[in-house]
């Protein structure tokens, strides 16, 4: 099974000018708080403590950058990329002024970041395509960013129910964002890990232009 081995924390940014200034390709991770974004990041990197960095006081509202190696089997030449953990959206306990900050910082990043190759949106399969997910998809479409949806916690549903949910999202997705794809994911069952790594590696390794 491929993972993004050797993931290391690079930096946190509250504003555009604090983001790394180079041309390393990036993939951003978005999702409602508690959807399973940290768990998915940890699993994709084969590293149980990775996304804990994003949770340390002072970092939860920032963009957190992790450098990863693109698996050699998926991109000969062993190039590197970055995964960017965006602040979880839509959590009620966040102070209103912090919530207001989310839009410009993340919105600006999604719109203007030249390094950004795609956005992974992590959704709890039991609450897929909530209002905020739809807003994120709409924003991504507006910015011309491809999206890949992880329907995570698939183990919480039976096999058939999970497939039904996947098909439901697949049917609706083209009308929301024509550059979006979706898959099942589960941390304990390790469902969809290879598929997600391959998809993200494909974005990170794609030639620019
Ligand atoms: P985040 O706020 O989006 O980063 O969410 P977390 O990764 O912290 O996950 C929220 C809760 O969901 C935690 O209790 C996780 O253990 C649990 N969780 C995350 N992914 C899965 C999964 O695939 N299956 C199950 N059963 N639980 C999960």
Structure description:
The protein has helices spanning 37-45, 96-112, 131-143, 159-176, 193-205, and strands spanning 8-13, 26-31, 63-69, 80-85, 116-124, 147-152, 180-184. It has 209 residues and is α/β, with parallel strands linked by helices. It has one domain (8-205): Rossmann fold (3-Layer(aba) Sandwich). Strands 1-3-4-2-5-6-7 form a seven-stranded mixed β-sheet, with helices on both faces. Guanosine-5'-diphosphate binds at residues 31, 33-39, 88, 152-153, 155-156, 186-188. Residues 31, 33-39, 88, 152-153, 155-156, 186-188 line the site of guanosine-5'-diphosphate.
Main sheet strand line-up: 1-3-4-2-5-6-7
Total domain units: 1
Structural class: alpha/beta
Q: Give the overall pLDDT as a whole number.
A: 88
Q: How many helical elements?
A: 5
* Ends apart, CA distance between termini: 30 Å
CATH topology: Rossmann fold
Enumerate the distinct ligands.
guanosine-5'-diphosphate
| H/E series | EEHEEHEHEHEH
Any chance you could write out the topology, listing elements then pairs?
Elements: E1 8-13, E2 26-31, H1 37-45, E3 63-69, E4 80-85, H2 96-112, E5 116-124, H3 131-143, E6 147-152, H4 159-176, E7 180-184, H5 193-205
Parallel strand pairs: 2-4, 2-5, 5-6, 6-7
Antiparallel strand pairs: 1-3, 3-4
Helix pairs in contact: 2-3
The structure holds guanosine-5'-diphosphate.
């Amino acid at each position: 099974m491929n993972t993004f081995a050797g993931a290391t924390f690079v930096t946190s940014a509250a504003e555009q000018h604090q983001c790394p200034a180079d041309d390393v390709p990036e993939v951003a991770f978005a999702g409602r708080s508690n959807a399973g974004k940290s768990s998915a990041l940890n699993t994709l990197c084969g590293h149980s403590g990775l996304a804990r960095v994003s949770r340390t006081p002072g970092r939860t509202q920032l963009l957190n950058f992790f450098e990863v190696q693109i698996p050699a089997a998926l991109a000969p030449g062993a190039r590197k990329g970055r995964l960017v953990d965006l602040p979880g959206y839509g959590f009620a306990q966040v102070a209103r002024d912090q919530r207001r900050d989310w839009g410009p910082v993340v919105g600006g990043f999604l719109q203007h970041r030249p390094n950004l190759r795609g956005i992974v949106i992590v959704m709890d399969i039991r609450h897929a395509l909530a209002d905020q997910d739809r807003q994120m998809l709409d924003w991504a479409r507006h910015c011309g960013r491809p999206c890949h949806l992880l329907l995570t916690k698939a183990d919480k549903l039976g096999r058939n129910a999970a497939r039904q949910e996947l098909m439901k999202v697949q049917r609706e997705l083209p009308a929301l964002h024509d550059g979006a794809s979706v898959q099942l994911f589960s941390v304990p069952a390790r469902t969809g890990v290879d598929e997600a790594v391959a998809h993200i590696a494909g974005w990170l390794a794609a030639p620019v232009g």
